[in-house]
Design a protein that fits this description.
alpha+beta; 10 helices; OB fold (Dihydrolipoamide Acetyltransferase, E2P); five-stranded mixed β-barrel; 29% helix; five-stranded antiparallel sheet
Length: 674
């Protein structure tokens, strides 16, 4: 009870103080003094009341400790009394209350006069209000309502110069709180108004002003109407931005490109405003352009393929090949950013607004200044600027290049890649082979500055001379070897071995190995030289001719099978061939790999280095001889019987019949054996 009394007394004191402050007439100075004196007296009153209530609280606490049950009963009665009081207040008819001040007519008249002066206020609505008073903690704002609203001073922290009389935007949070106070919010009003303005700016294309607050990934953060918006790096300016930090803190104009209230995103652009102005300038500039016209421009940007030049509102491109008559690897070798240069218009497309510019065309072509005395056969010095498989380009002087083909780098007919001879940047001494000043073409050679090794080939490598050479390449038909620098020779696959049949040179040797050869033939006109390896030894076929005689039988081993026959190795590792039909054995099966059998020489060819064999004939010929011998024996016996036929008796006939049956039986047995 004492706590409630204390609070009520304090509220009354404060309320009375505020009423006195508002109703006290007089000058501001006297009003301030009165307020201070009244405030002091009120403070004394509050202190007295507080002291009394503290004593009462102490007494009540003791009573409550001693009589808990009695207090509980009192509280129940108080609740019942309070409910009854509320019910009575709700049932009370205020209209029946007698008023001694105004009659009903006068009251209605005053209401009709007073009500129109009050504005209709709705909750959650943004209004403009006037600042009435500013204190350290609060700002009092008049919105033309029956009471003024109070807003925390911290909501105006962004505006330290706020003063009475300023117009501010506020949001009606609540028309009356429990104390009957109008609750307003300036912060929320600013946000809502800002989104309204941003949406309107997007719809109408209105230009808005904002301040760039800071950098962020991909662009900048801009404050527009108190809202943070995103400014992409590509939308800051039409020119490439090299230093983003120099824009921080700047106030600039923007165009709203995109608004997403759901995700609270706003995207703005400053470039869009510039482009609108530039578009008109472009049309004017493009209408005045002519091919061959020389203009001044500023280097705006450099890329690997060229340079963009700002011609005062419209951009043109100088391709890297039009920057210099000589070869360059990057435009920065010729120009620098923000440099002012003169350029010539090579071509332009008014519809696509593309302009092709040139820089080298403003200077004289280097071929025009080429020494007139220069001729074919002269020696020149240059630097390799391009390397390709087929050759290199040599820069004789800036803007003048000549081709040095790979075939002119070495006397060797076995061509290699130019990368094996030169790399970019190498100095080259060469001889001019062709020169066409009108077509601006020149070809060079370096092998011509050396002695042609083929001019002394017969002296250095005579026929039948033996040499040890390096294997440099393989083909299906032979091996290329290097006899000397610029001189390659061929060892045909048939000249590798007298006895072995080689299918590919890789079976015999490998690239990089040394090989002994003998010179077989030289063709100076076609620059060819034939070599042999097997010719280092005597031809063994001269000996084989006396060993392997046609008709004789020799032991051999089957080493490999083919579709048409088999490869058979005889003594002395001589390879021979046996046709398939000559591989049949006496049991009817065919010979297989790894079997050692008797073979008969059917054919021997020294010229073709060929021996033809047969295993089948080794046993079939003996059978044939035995058969012929038996036939001759039978014939003689028959002849003897026929001579003695006239003298024969019955017993003789029986003997003859038995002899005939015996011959027939023997013939059947022979057929079965075959």
């Amino acid at each position: 009870m004492s706590e409630k009394k204390t609070k009520k007394t304090t509220e009354e004191v404060v309320e009375n103080t505020e009423i006195q402050e508002e109703n006290t007439p007089g000058a501001e100075d006297s009003k301030d003094e009165t307020n201070r004196s009244e405030g002091a007296s009120q403070e004394e009153k509050v202190e007295v009341v507080t002291e009394v209530t503290d004593e009462q609280l102490a007494v009540e606490e003791v009573v409550q400790e001693e009589k808990v049950e009695a207090v509980t009963e009192v509280k129940k009665k108080e609740k019942a009394t309070k409910k009854k009081k509320v019910a009575n207040e709700e049932a009370f008819d205020w209209d029946k209350l007698d008023s001694t001040d105004y009659s009903q007519k006068e009251r209605d008249a005053l209401e009709q006069e007073y009500l129109p002066t009050l504005s209709a206020v709705e909750d959650k609505k943004v209004l403009d209000g006037t600042v009435v008073r500013v204190t350290d903690r609060e700002v009092i704002v008049d919105i033309n309502f029956k009471s003024d609203g109070v807003i925390g001073r911290n909501e105006f922290r962004y505006n330290p110069d706020l003063k009475a009389g300023d117009t501010v935007e506020v949001l009606v949070e609540k028309q009356e709180d429990k104390n009957g106070q109008l609750i307003l919010s300036h912060r929320r009003a600013r946000v809502l108004r800002a989104w309204e303005k941003v949406n309107i700016a997007q719809d109408t294309g209105e230009i808005v002003e904002g301040t760039i607050k800071s950098r962020t990934k991909g662009g900048m953060i801009v404050e527009v109407f108190g809202i943070e918006a995103f400014l992409p790096g590509s939308q800051i300016d039409v020119k490439p931005i090299r230093d983003y930090d120099e824009y921080v803190g700047k106030k600039m104009e923007f165009k709203v490109l995109k608004v997403n209230e759901v995700f609270r995103n706003v995207v703005v652009s400053h470039k869009a405003l510039i482009e609108a102005d530039i578009e008109e300038q472009k049309k004017e500039i493009m209408s005045k352009l002519e091919k061959g016209q020389v203009l001044e421009g500023v280097v705006k940007n450099t890329t690997s393929y060229g340079v963009f030049i700002d011609l005062g509102g419209v951009d043109g491109l100088i391709h890297i090949t039009d920057l210099s008559w000589g070869r360059i690897s990057h435009p920065e070798e010729v120009v620098t950013l923000d440099e002012k240069i003169n350029v010539v218009i090579l071509d332009f497309d008014e519809d696509k607004k593309r302009i092709q510019l040139g820089l080298k065309q403003l200077s004289k072509h280097p071929w025009d200044s080429l020494d007139e005395k220069l001729k074919v056969g002269d020696k020149v010095n240059g630097k390799v600027v391009v390397v390709a498989d087929y050759g290199v380009f040599v820069e004789i002087q800036p803007g003048i290049e000549a081709l040095l083909h790979v075939s002119e780098m070495s006397w060797s007919t076995h061509l290699r890649s130019a990368n094996d001879f030169f790399k970019v940047g190498d100095d080259v001494d060469a001889q001019i082979l062709t020169l066409d000043k009108e077509e601006r073409k020149m070809s060079l050679g370096i092998k011509q500055m050396q002695e042609d090794p083929w001019s002394v080939i017969t002296k250095k490598f005579p026929v039948d001379s033996k040499h040890k050479v390096k294997v440099i390449n393989f083909t299906n038909f032979g091996i290329f070897v290097e006899l000397d620098e610029g001189i390659d020779g061929l060892v045909h696959i048939s000249d590798l071995s007298w006895t072995k049949k080689i299918k590919h040179p890789a079976e015999f040797t490998s690239v990089g190995e040394m090989l002994e050869v003998v010179v077989l033939e030289i063709d100076i006109e076609n620059r060819r030289i034939s070599l042999g390896h097997k010719q280092l030894e005597d031809n063994p076929w001269d000996t084989y001719e006396t060993i392997f005689i046609e008709g004789n039988v020799y032991k051999g081993k089957v080493t490999e099978m083919f579709e048409k026959g088999a490869l058979v190795v005889l003594d002395h590792d001589v390879e021979a061939f046996a046709p398939k039909r000559h591989l049949e054995k006496d049991n009817g099966s065919n010979a297989g790999v790894g079997e050692e059998l008797d073979f008969k020489v059917l054919e021997f060819s020294k010229e073709n280095k060929k021996i033809l064999l047969s295993h089948t004939l080794t046993f079939k010929e003996e059978e044939k001889k035995a058969k012929n011998k038996a036939a001759k024996s039978t014939k003689k016996q028959v002849e003897r019987i026929q001579e003695s036929q006239q003298k024969s008796t019955l017993g003789d006939l029986d003997v003859l019949s038995e002899l005939k049956d015996d011959i027939t039986t023997k013939e059947k047995e022979k057929k079965n054996d075959e």
